[in-house]
Amino acid sequence: MQIREATRDDYAELTALYARMCEILGEEDFLPEGNKGGFPSGSMIVHAIERHEQFVGIEDGTIAAAYIMDHECDPAYDQVDWTVDAARDEVSILHALRVLPEFGGRGFAKQLVDHAIKTAKERGQRAIRLDCIEGNNIPQNMYRSFGFQYVGTVSITYPDIGVPRDFLVYELAL
């Protein structure tokens, strides 16, 4: 898989990937309210593309995977006792890391995380932080395999979910 920054030409295919993944994830037990859709929003994708924060994984001429890495986070992150004391612009937040199911089992998610770590280091970041909804254990295991440390659990009401949920927050010191 080739990983690169997304361009405006990728927008339609990216929004389709994320919409499909919202449908798939909406069927999981950790989202009992079902598919809320809309994450990331179209405006978030456009903003990330413009700021060189949206990345895509290309396989067989298709966007098979994607992630966003920026400095935006829910205010609940301010309640966390992070291990790395750093300013907001020194910390990257990893969002919306997704791999289409037909490309699953090939290690693409791990390739994206590895790419995110290298990119954050190249950009002079001191840490990467992320959150995983409680019950979604597969990505948590993967993040821990890269050295991400569980730091705590916070309640967040993301607009796409619409109700407060517990999220486990992780940090990787760079």
From TrEMBL:
Q: What region holds the N-acetyltransferase domain?
A: 1-174
Coiled coil ranges: none
Instruction: List UniProt keywords, sorted A-Z.
Output: Acyltransferase, Transferase
The protein's superkingdom reads Bacteria
Write down the InterPro entries for this protein, in alphabetical order.
Answer: Acyl_CoA_acyltransferase (IPR016181), GNAT_dom (IPR000182), YpeA/RimI_acetyltransf (IPR050680)
Q: Which GO terms describe its molecular function?
A: acyltransferase activity, transferring groups other than amino-acyl groups
Gene3D superfamilies in the record, alphabetically?
Answer: 3.40.630.30
For this protein, the record's Pfam families field holds: Acetyltransf_1
Q: Which SUPFAM superfamilies match?
A: Acyl-CoA N-acyltransferases (Nat)
Read off the PANTHER family from this record.
ACETYLTRANSFERASE, ACETYLTRANSFERASE YPEA
What is the protein named? GNAT family N-acetyltransferase
Write down the species.
Answer: Candidatus Aveggerthella stercoripullorum
